[in-house]
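hiii, so i know i said id send this last week but things got crazy w the move. better late than never?? heres the sequnce for the chain we talked about at the cafe, plus the structure i predicted for it. fair warning i was half asleep when i ran it
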Amino acid sequence: MRLGISTNSFFNRINTESTFDIIRQMRIDMAEVYLTTFSEYEQKFLDVIVPRRGNIAVHSVHPEGSQFEPELFSTNARIRADAEIFFRKVCYSARMLGAPFYIFHGPVRLKKTEYEFDFVRLGDRVNQLCEIARSYGVRLAYENVFYGYGNTPDYFKQLLRQCPNLLAVLDTRHALLAGIEPIKFLEAMEGKICTIHLCDIKKDSDSALPGEGKYNFEKFFNEANKARVNASVILEPSSRDYKDVNQLKTCYDYLNALIIRSRT
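okay and structure toks below
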């Protein structure tokens, strides 16, 4: 497992295109690029950000999926087609940044609504999106999100059976917010995990830097190592979770030490 950081860790502190300079100063060589708004899906923005990447490897691109991803599953063909325009722009951005993975949230759950999923039909649409991503040289990677369709291990077990080319992203904070031990997602996503997002939560469910909340990350990495998970690990806290970059770097070093220790 190799450790990197998400540009979303600096949201509202520094613009996305300027985060590479900070990441280099932290001596981190891998990042996930989080595209936060519609203008960041455009060629004009790529012309700015691509040259600033330098020697930092971009593992994945992650859009603000709630802006358009639910509409990719609309029953209305025109709405689906419009959403696909943005989907393709993100795939293109990933290709231009050299990122092999698109981090995907998919549809969201509405409160007070009971859901029964037709995994054959749902899988057919996800397979179409996987093919679109593949045409750009990118793999689609579906993330567990507590407010999304994919908020339980069983959802991933069922969907991954229908989608042989779909990959999975395990987010520890979202698992905890859903009331589920993240290790259970390790088991459900077996053999499909390309990315692990790391963030912790406090007892009141506010987000926290890993090691400053309630979750045992040492146990998590030990279990991931036993399961022979070969995935990139991305530190993805909220920018509200730390005071300065030194505190963020201390967290990064702490996690890197846990990863190394889990191998012994």
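btw The chain has a mean pLDDT of 95. thought thatd interest u
miss u guys!!
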